[in-house]
């Protein structure tokens, strides 16, 4: 790595760290490119050279900065109801912390703001998590715990969507009891 | 109404019209307070005097400017499956038009951007629509078409959330077939 490249990488990481810290401190609405530049000790033009918008910086900061829930397979105890409950309860608890809510609001605002950012976030964050869920549902269907014609993509979108809706409206946060009700409803319809 | 008040109301409506038109032409990401002021023929300060943020203008423009789906009761044919299908198909078709997608992305970005705007949009847009859905579900439960312990709020959040998730990710748009699958899944679990 040349000296120039090393300096670039140092600046890039300083920018992502600054964006992540500011996001956690004040949320997406308070975040400005000016503030990120000031905190990172770089010029605004350095940020604009690498990222097209505030949303694009936020997406990278969330994905590289460890804000997003790590991509771990769903538990497989052999019982789909137990496993879906654990998974949806864990996501409910994550997304209703201050950090988790801030993260999902920021990623949603970035997605709504910018179509390119939307594609990157889907490919690197949303889709891999949805795929893990679909994989576990496919195994349950193969094991006869779901009907042979159970619509796996629909079930996945229902489990994710009901939680997302409750978080995004910014009203009463969803609870683990809500998670259990959603799982029971879905498995009642797919069993 | 005094001359001053009349001028104020004229400016207010010009600002909301400009915001609505710019939103339909270029989407939320392109929209700026500068552009709204230019189109409406007012100074930026006039906008900032009445609205705290871009999100707040957009919320009012969507709610007063006829962009949002009108609040009409769900059909009641006496058959809950027929009625939910019609309702979810209509929303799916609305939210996958260019105007409908633009609207929901703008309202979501505004909600994620600003907590005050989130509360206003929930109270004036989201909650009334969710209440109509809950009312219809309650009647179906009373008529014995849903189990007596069917969790009406959960069913409502699942129906709305699955559609919202598919629209917000900005990937393949949901179809009326997806709507039918969601309704069948939910009624299978709640019947």
Topology:
Two copies of one chain form a homodimer.
Chain A: H1 3-26, H2 33-40, H3 44-50, H4 54-64, H5 80-95, H6 98-113, H7 115-142, H8 152-168, H9 176-190
Helix pairs in contact in A: 1-2, 1-4, 4-6, 4-7, 5-8, 5-9, 6-7, 7-8, 8-9
Question: What does this 3D model show about the protein?
Answer:
The structure is a homodimer of 191-residue chains. With 191 residues, the first copy, chain A, is mainly alpha-helical. The first copy, chain A, folds into two domains: 3-54, Homeodomain-like (Arc Repressor Mutant, subunit A), CATH 1.10.10.60; 80-190, Tetracycline Repressor, domain 2, CATH 1.10.357.10. Chain A has nine helices and no strands. In chain A, 41% of the residues are buried. Chains A and B meet through helix 6, helix 7, helix 8 and helix 9 of A and helix 6, helix 7, helix 8 and helix 9 of B.
Largest interface: A-B, 42 and 43 residues
CATH superfamily of the largest domain in chain A: Tetracycline Repressor, domain 2
Q: Tell how many strands the DSSP assignment of chain A holds.
A: 0
Name of the top-level CATH class of the largest domain in chain A: Mainly Alpha
What count of helical segments of chain A does DSSP give?
Answer: 9
| Integer-rounded radius of gyration of chain A | 19 Å
């Amino acid at each position: 790595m040349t000296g120039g490249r090393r300096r670039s990488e140092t600046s890039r990481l300083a920018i992502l760290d600054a964006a992540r810290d500011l996001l956690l401190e004040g949320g997406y609405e308070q975040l400005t490119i000016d503030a990120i530049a000031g905190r990172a000790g770089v010029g605004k033009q350095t940020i604009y050279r690498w990222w097209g918008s505030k949303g694009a910086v936020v997406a990278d900061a969330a994905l590289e900065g460890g804000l997003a829930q790590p991509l771990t397979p769903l538990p497989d105890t052999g019982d789909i109801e137990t496993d879906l409950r654990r998974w949806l309860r864990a996501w409910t608890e994550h997304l209703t912390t201050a950090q988790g809510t801030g993260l999902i609001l920021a990623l949603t605002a970035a997605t709504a703001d910018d179509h390119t950012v939307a594609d990157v976030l889907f490919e690197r964050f949303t889709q891999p998590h949805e795929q893990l869920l679909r994989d576990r549902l496919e195994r349950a269907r193969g094991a006869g715990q779901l009907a042979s014609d159970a619509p796996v993509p629909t079930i996945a979108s229902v489990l994710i969507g009901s939680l997302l809706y409750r978080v995004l409206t910014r009203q009463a946060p969803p609870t683990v009891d809500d998670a259990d009700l959603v799982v029971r409803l879905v498995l009642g319809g797919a069993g």
